[in-house]
Amino acid sequence: MGDLALTEARRAWPGKTLCVNFPGGKLYRADEEIVSYAAELLREGMAGGRFLLTFSEDFPQPEPSLRLVAEGVARYQKEDGNKALLFELV
Fold first, then answer.
1. pLDDT of residue 89
2. What residues does each domain of the chain span?
């Protein structure tokens, strides 16, 4: 939801781990939009390695919201073949 693209952040801080918060406002969108956004965010973030996705918002419906993000993670892993992810619902 900020105005700094991940590619710009990587150029500004090479070699740093980027810690990006999943924007809570996205969780008010349609289910497919949430899944697609999560997959694309991972695709862009993981392309440069050293990427951490966090969740620090009060979600509208925590369990369904995080399950949709988990679907996005699964889509990213299936499409990009990247298995070096940890995602856990607690």
1. 52
2. 24-90
